[in-house]
Amino acid sequence: MTPAAALANDRQAPGTGSYLRLTGASKSYGAVRALDGVDLELRAGEVTALVGDNGAGKSTLVKALAGVHALDTGDFVIDGRPTTIASPHDAVAQGIATVYQDLALCENLDVVANLYLGQEPRNGRGRLLDEEEMESNARRLLDELAVRTLASVRTAVAALSGGQRQTVAIARALIGTPRVMLLDEPTAALGVAQTAQVLELIRRLRDRGIAVLVISHNLGDVFKVADRAVVLRLGALAGEYRIAATNQDEIVAAITGADVRNQNERNHA
Amino acid sequence: MTAISAGATGRLRAWTSTVAAGRGRSNDLSFLPVLAALAIIWLVFGTMNENFISPANLTNLTLQIAATGTIAVGVVLVLLIGEIDLSVGALSGFAAGVMAVLNVRAGVPGLVAILAAVALGVAVGVFNGLWITRTAVPSFVVTLAGLLAWQGALLAVLGGTGTLNITDPGITRLAQGFLPAWLSWVVLVVVILAVAAGSVRQRQRRIAKGLGVPSPAWTLLRVAIAAGVGSGAVAVLNSDRGVPYALVLLLGLIVVFDTMIRRTRLGRHIMSVGGNAEAARRAGINVNGVRVFVFAAAGGAAALGGVVAASRLFAVNQSSGSGDLLLNAIAAAVIGGTSLFGGRGSVWAALLGALVIGSISNGMDLLGYVTSVKFLVTGAVLLLSVTVDARARERRRRAGGPA
Fold first, then answer.
1. Which helix (H) or strand (E) element contains residue A77?
2. Chain A residues with CB-CB distance to B389 below 8 A
3. More confident call, B160 vs A62
4. Do B403 and A191 touch (CB under 8 A)?
5. Cα distance from A140 to chain B (closest Cα, Å)?
6. Positions in chain A short of pLDDT 70
7. Which pLDDT value is given to residue B400?
8. ipTM of the complex in this document
9. What span, in angstroms and rounded, lies between the C-alpha atoms of A203 and A197?
10. Is residue A102 part of a domain?
């Protein structure tokens, strides 16, 4: 199935409830309890923001979802079936794609080669790469994502801006036709205009029925793009908010553990 | 003035990116610096001594660079993954020594002895690769140890004699024999037809997928250039003794590995390991497997280069594979445009770089310069080309950094 066709299929079933549910996630590194009984639900066609202070357990949780570090305990239900994620391979097989903060692109290769790295199609005749198939699919995929900033899909990644690289990394994750996309600080290194582009791209992923989890330190971005915010504090769930029904103060209070009213009183004192 | 040159640069850049997009390749024009250098070198030596561009001397030149170029093919591959192999020179001598002992002392047929030498080179390469990937000792150190050890191994297999003379035509024909003129033309025509057919097929596939194609004139021009360079070279060589088997072997090796690098999954993975090994690993690529393969290929190419060198000398002796062979092979790969930082370069760099180094050496010999001057000039050229690479890398970094 081409990525484009897979996206079209996904689009037919947007917002249809829970795709991934994780309950009782716990993980210790030696004496440090990084995650303590956290529940997380990701829904198709919804952007969930994962927020929390440094050391709150965001990375541990994402690494567990991506299969990089297995949890000590925690039960996954994916697409209605109980399952386990013990390796990156398991995660990919369950339709979970991860875009790490460092993007993991090869600067010396062009956009097409990066999109298909590790899963290059070969033409039927021989063992040679099917460059035409890759290039035309890459173009179609980027067109569907309304990426207009790339002059040519044959540009080396070294010549791209930070926002363009983020776009390539996200598009690359889409090649595997994922149901869940984990984005680690996708706007951390970007300027204003490029941040807006990437946020628009995240909305487009959501509109295609993908369950998106965004880790972000930037609450402004969270309020622009997310439907829900899950707050972690000291490895435990500190709250879950519908973005439409909350405000930044409430989220900040959950992140820091301060009571909103107390904080306001202190501010007024 | 500045505005004009900036406009011209912009147009040039737009043109190169159009060409790269149409061709589906991005490093088409990366050969220009080394080709320009080669043209200048030939022009200078050609005007200073008319014998330099005589068919006899150009034939000698191809024979002089055959061993270096063959070894440099392996060096290019190793540089592409961002590693280094300092053992290829000593290994070429050791493998040639084993071939000579098998052939001269044990009476093994020449071709079998050659294959045994290449197998030994591959085995040593696998050992290098496994040691580097399993122990995480840098390739610089592992292969530096090999540089010392294989020199010792060569002395050991030669034993007391010190020199083994090779008379088996199965071996000596490699660097002493020439393709019959008619056969060289047949091979050339077949190659050109294959290149043309490949270009046409690529155009058709791109059109079928709705992708842009370069103008037919551009495709025709490329085939015409290939045909022109090829028939020029064949004509010149045939007007002397002919096309050396060693050159055919080197070109064949280059075509095979160039196709592998540009057109196969393994080649793409090699480039990705050189570009960003962590990204390659996360993409599910067996990074260590790629590394072992590359060192094995470099070992095999080194052994083959040693065989060519022995064939040219009619002998293997205690200094086989030593001297400036290693340094010239690495210099050839770098001068040809292979980046020392990994991930950038072409297998053709081996031939072009070896031609630059060989031309300097050959030309200065003709002009009667002593070895000291030769080394100084070659060193300067190497420094210049590495500086060009480093500057280009710096420019790319500044142009493409997060904005």
1. strand A73-78
2. none
3. A62
4. yes
5. 11
6. 1-16, 125, 259-269
7. 53
8. 0.86
9. 10
10. no
Same-domain status, A182 and A152: no
Please give the Cα distance from A53 to B232 (Å, whole number): 69
Does B229 have pLDDT greater than 70? yes
Indicate the residue among A128, A155, A177 that finishes a domain.
Answer: A177
Q: Which of A144, A177, A210 is the last residue of a domain?
A: A177
Segment B304-335, tens digit of pLDDT: 999 999 999 999 999 999 888 999 999 999 99
CB atoms within 10 A of CB B95: 36
According to the model, what pLDDT value does residue B28 have?
56
Asked if residue B202 is part of any domain, the answer here is no
CATH code, B375: 1.10.3470
Number of domains making up chain B: 1
Give the best-scoring range by mean pLDDT among A13-17, B254-258, B382-386. B254-258
Residue A231 belongs to a domain: yes
Cα separation, B157 vs B375, whole angstroms: 31
Based on the fold, state whether residues A121 and A26 are members of the same structural domain. no
CATH number at residue A204: 3.40.50.300
Q: Are residues A244 and A113 in the same domain?
A: no
Q: Is the pLDDT of residue B12 over 60?
A: no
Chain B residues whose beta carbon lies within 8 Å of the beta carbon of residue A191: 403
Q: How far is CA B88 from the centre of its chain?
A: 13
Q: What is the pLDDT of residues B111-129, one digit of tens each?
A: 999 999 999 999 999 999 9
Q: State the total domains in chain A.
A: 2
From A156, which residue of chain B is nearest by alpha-carbon distance?
B26
Q: Evaluate whether residue A65 is within a structural domain.
A: yes
Q: What is the pLDDT of residues B89-117, one digit of tens each?
A: 999 999 999 999 999 999 999 999 999 99
- What is residue B397's predicted lDDT score, i.e. its pLDDT? 67
| C-alpha torsion B393→B398→B400→B402, nearest 10 | 140
pTM: 0.86
Segments forming the whole domain that contains residue B97 = 2-177+244-399
- Write the DSSP assignment of A180-237 as a string of letters: EEEEESTTTT--HHHHHHHHHHHHHHHHTT-EEEEE-S-HHHHHHH-SEEEEEETTEE
Residue B191 forms part of a structural domain: no
Contact B402/A at CB under 8 A = yes
At position B337, the amino acid (one-letter code) is G
Residues A232 and A150 in one domain: no
Which chain B residues are Cβ-neighbours of A120 within 8 angstroms?
A: 265, 268
CB contact under 8 Å between B17 and A155, yes or no, is yes
Query: What's the pLDDT score for residue B381?
Result: 85
Chain B CB contacts of A163 under 8 Å are 403
Distance of CA A209 to the CA centre of its chain: 13
Does one domain contain both A18 and A114?
no
CB atoms within 10 A of CB A109: 24
B202: closest chain A residue by CA: A132
pLDDT at B323: 85
Residues with Cβ within 8 Å of residue B108, at least 6 apart in sequence:
B102, B116
A100 falls within a domain: no
Among the partner residues B21, B259, B274, nearest to A154 by beta-carbon distance: B21
Tell me the angle at which helices B245-263 and B55-80 cross, rounded to the nearest 10 degrees: 30
Q: Select from A88, A104, A109 the Cβ nearest to the Cβ of B278.
A: A104
B276 with A165: Cβ contact below 8 A: no
Residue B285 inside a domain? The answer is: yes
Instruction: Determine, for residues A108 and B206 on separate chains, whether the beta-carbon distance falls below 8 Å.
Output: no
pLDDT at A177: 84
* Boundaries of domain holding A240: 3-95+178-267
- All residues of chain A having their beta carbon less than 8 Å from the beta carbon of residue B209 are 132-133, 135-136
